[in-house]
Design goal:
The complex is a heterodimer. Chain A has a domain at 10-42 and 63-232 and 334-416. Helices cover 61% and strands 3% of the residues of chain A. Chain A has helices at 2-5, 16-39, 66-96, 100-130, 136-156, 161-180, 184-203, 208-219, 296-309, 334-341, 354-368, 372-399, 404-408, 414-442, 450-488, 504-515; strands at residues 227-229, 246-249, 284-286, 322-325, 350-353. In chain A, the strands form 2 sheets. Chain A has a 3-stranded antiparallel beta sheet with strand order 1-5-3. In chain A, strands 2-4 form a two-stranded antiparallel ribbon. In chain A, helix 3 runs parallel beside helix 7 (184-203), helix 4 runs antiparallel to helix 5 and helix 14 (414-442) packs antiparallel against helix 15. The longest helix of chain A has 39 residues, at 450-488. By secondary structure, chain B is mostly helical. Chain B has a two-stranded antiparallel sheet with strand order 1-2. In chain B, strand 1 (147-148) and strand 2 form a beta hairpin. The mean pLDDT of chain B is 87. The chains are: A mainly alpha, B mainly alpha. At the A-B interface, helix 2, helix 10, helix 12 and helix 14 of A face helix 2, helix 3 and helix 4 of B.
């Protein structure tokens, strides 16, 4: 055919990263919607015997008035947020005392609980619904194996990235399904409360998450977190400028102390955080690659040596990619960086926190309990918001080199910048939320009463806006920090660290499933 | 009636779109994004229109001409949106060409542009099919089926699936025709999409009469086939012209 002889068009690989994030989000939402429709056909209202930490204050029953439900839901949400805050402070404390190992193992344990107990519970529901003939022993064996492989894949060792990604999606599906089992008003108020809590915990000076991030940044460590990382796009055809190739080596996280790293070249301090466990709500991060010109080659070699040396629990990285990028900032690489940063160029992996997966899936699954048109519209709105967020981030990454003053100044300047940009973002992010709001009012096939829908639409709007703003905010903060680093070119390769937003997903699984 | 029938109806409405997606669009991520955004745009246009016409609905008339006005306004709005889509696409084309120049890759080929138009049209078609057919299919997964009085020969779900398939085809390919019409300045192609859309909308009014679906559905498929053929001829002509032009260029070098 003619096409094989044609040079590859720019359309072939454009936007690949975005699609690589949208695909797992869509799969997660689809699975949760399927689970909800299959398992919730008989009872539309909440299960009255469902107790958990989120319903400890008030258990909703359909005979209460709306005001009672709202009060009860607020009470529930308050209790939940208080527990989450306490646990987050505990996490900050542990991190402060450098108990990172303990944290890591604890995260592994909690994901074991999620996969084992919540997964087992849902599997039992499915077995009951479809009358699958299986006995306890086989079921237990299969479940145990599944769980252990999941824990290993996500936290402990290296596996094919598809397996890791698959298990992360499964964890998100299970947690999201668990959240949909809560009573309805509690769910909505809880989502809003969690979004507000995120904002407060990150932006307030005494907020636990801010403390955590600052600790991590000052120590140059990673925060343990549950993060979905899409495979980076490799552009094999880009021509290196200046005669040699700037490389970015994307490696697994190393567990050694950072004291021993100072003698190494700064480029070897790259952390790719594939293995990092995260409290990961609303963390959206790009990992551009870069190295300094002169010692670039050395960096790579040293890094190779580095990798082979410290192998303790992280095996030689299976996911070591070499990605070509042009990085000469002095030569007006603003444009190059722009095209890198449009988000449509081929560069590094995009990471999305698992909390975002869960949040979107809970939204969509709740919509699935009413009507499929609402699901469809919610899905489109969420994907639109996500896509716009990614594009805007990439776009404003372009603007960053053009703002040298703010970048070179102290990092406290990021607040006024984010203030200004937040206004811009919230306009585009409100759009999908408004969409959902309007559609919930306009959809022709609803069966529920009017007030339910209007309240749902309203909370959806608030939640979406706040969370989107937050997502973008965090991302901007991260990128600004790394941009500063890069321009100063001294420790150019210390990545900004992820913001760990909440840990409650990991820790509360323990509480919640323990109480179930 | 049963899950098998439900999935069957869904595939009747969306099968060709799915195969188009898998064959053409899934390989190029940009086209996936185009599809999603055009689906969203179509959905938003529906929302806006329904908000606007909320004042007049439901139309409790037994005569049929108020529906004509409704269809006229809806089609007009969607076609205006298509022109807006075209303008956005022009800007996007400039950005993409600039990007291609920077990464020293060739600029957008004509086939690329047609593929983007196809993805946009497919987004519209899929949105239409999902809204007007899949949204109604939830009862079809149960144990029974449903017949409408005015069309007693086929189950309601099957009729809606067939109509949705016709409309998806019309939307998909009229977008390609419209975009190439705007690009070349061809008046026939530019007017083709709105006219065809309007005719298709009017044809569905025949369903209001008893037994109307036996007339309107074949006519609807005639319109869809006309769209397909016209699009095919236009694409073929442009490809041949392009290839001869490239041949001339390479000969003269």
């Amino acid at each position: 055919m003619d096409e094989n002889s044609k040079p590859k068009s720019v359309l072939d690989s454009l936007g690949e990263e975005i699609v690589r994030i949208i695909t797992p989000v869509s799969i997660c939402m689809l699975l949760v919607v399927i689970l909800v429709t299959v398992l919730n056909n008989d009872t539309d209202s909440s299960n009255p015997s469902f107790t958990s930490i989120a319903t400890v204050a008030y258990n909703e029953s359909s005979s209460d008035s709306n005001w009672d439900k709202l009060k009860g839901a607020l009470l529930n949400a308050l209790v939940f947020v208080v527990v989450v805050t306490v646990v987050t402070f505990l996490l900050v404390l542990l991190f402060y005392f450098r108990c990172t190992e303990f944290l890591k193992y604890y995260m592994g344990f909690s994901s074991f609980l999620v996969l084992g107990f919540t997964g087992g519970e849902i599997a039992i529901f499915l077995i009951g619904k479809f009358r699958v003939p299986i006995d306890c022993v086989s079921f237990g064996l299969i479940l145990f194996n599944f769980t252990v492989v999941g824990v290993l894949a996500v936290f402990m060792s290296k596996m094919a990235i598809v397996v890791t990604q698959g298990y992360l999606v499964v964890i998100a599906v299970l947690v999201a399904y668990w959240f949909t089992m809560l009573p309805e008003w509690t769910t909505w108020v809880l989502l809003v409360a969690m979004a507000l809590h995120d904002l407060a915990a990150v932006l307030l000076p005494g907020g636990p998450l801010r403390l955590l991030v600052e600790l991590a940044m000052s120590r140059d460590e990673d925060i343990p977190a549950l993060v979905y990382e899409a495979r980076p796009v490799i552009d094999r055809e880009s021509v290196p400028r200046g005669g040699f190739v700037q490389r970015r080596v994307w490696r697994e996280r190393r567990e050694n102390e950072f004291g021993s790293d100072e003698n190494l070249d700064s480029s070897s301090n790259l952390n790719s955080n594939v293995n990092s466990i995260s409290e990961s709500r609303s963390v959206l991060e790009r990992r551009p690659l870069y190295g300094s010109d002169e010692n670039e080659r050395n960096a790579v070699d040293m890094e190779d040596g580095q990798v082979s040396r410290e192998d303790s629990e992280l095996a030689a990285p299976l996911i070591q990619h070499r990605i070509n990028v042009r990085m000469n900032l002095q030569e007006g690489s603003n444009d190059d960086f722009a095209l890198e940063g449009i988000g449509l160029g081929s560069s590094g992996a995009i990471k999305l926190g698992l909390g975002d997966f869960i949040f979107y899936s809970v939204l969509v699954a709740r919509a699935a309990m009413y009507d499929f048109m609402t699901v469809y519209a919610c899905y489109l709105a969420i994907i639109a918001g996500l896509g716009i967020t990614l594009m805007l981030l990439a776009f404003y990454q372009k603007a960053l080199p053009a703002l040298p003053v703010s970048v070179l100044l102290d990092h406290w300047l990021r607040d006024p910048i984010t203030q200004r940009l937040r206004g811009f973002v919230s306009v585009t992010e409100i759009l999908p939320a408004v969409l959902v709001l309007v559609l919930s009012d306009v959809s022709p096939c609803r069966q529920k009463s009017q007030d339910l829908h209007s309240s749902k639409g309203l909370t959806l709007k608030t939640t979406d806006t706040i969370t989107r703003v937050k997502t973008w905010n965090d991302f901007y903060l991260n990128d600004e920090a790394f941009m500063r680093q890069m321009l100063s070119d001294s420790h150019g390769l210390n990545f900004c660290h992820e913001k760990s937003i909440n840990n409650e997903k990991g820790v509360n699984q323990n509480d919640l499933t323990g109480q179930n | 009636m049963t899950v098998a029938a439900g999935i069957g109806y869904a595939l009747v409405a969306l099968g060709p779109s799915l195969s188009l997606f898998l064959a053409l669009i899934s390989k190029k991520p940009f086209l996936i994004l185009t599809l999603l955004s055009s689906t969203l745009v179509w959905l938003m246009s529906l929302i806006v229109m329904s908000a606007l016409s909320r004042a007049f609905l439901p139309l409790k008339t037994t005569v049929w001409w108020p529906y004509t006005i409704l269809i006229l306004t809806s089609v007009g709005f969607q076609e205006a949106l298509r022109i807006l889509f075209w303008k956005v696409y022009k800007k996007l084309e400039d950005i993409l060409d600039a990007f291609a120049d920077r990464v020293s890759k060739p600029r957008l080929f004509m086939t690329d542009k047609m593929q983007i138009a196809l993805a946009g049209g497919l987004g519209h078609g899929v949105a239409h099919a999902v809204f007007f057919c899949l949204g109604l299919l939830t009862p079809a997964f149960g144990p029974a089926t449903y017949y409408v009085e005015k069309c007693p020969k086929m189950p309601f779900f099957l009729v809606s699936a067939i109509i949705a398939l016709a409309f998806a085809t019309i939307h998909t390919f009229s977008m390609v025709i419209a975009f190439s019409g705007y690009e070349e300045g061809n008046k026939v192609d530019q007017c083709f999409a709105p006219v065809v859309h309007f005719i298709a909308g009017m044809l569905t009014l025949i369903n209001l009469a008893f037994g109307g679906c036996t007339i309107s559905i074949p006519l609807l498929y005639c319109v869809a086939i006309v769209t397909l053929v016209h699009c095919g001829k236009m694409a073929w002509r442009r490809l041949i012209e392009n290839r001869s032009r490239e041949g001339n260029l390479s000969n003269s070098q």
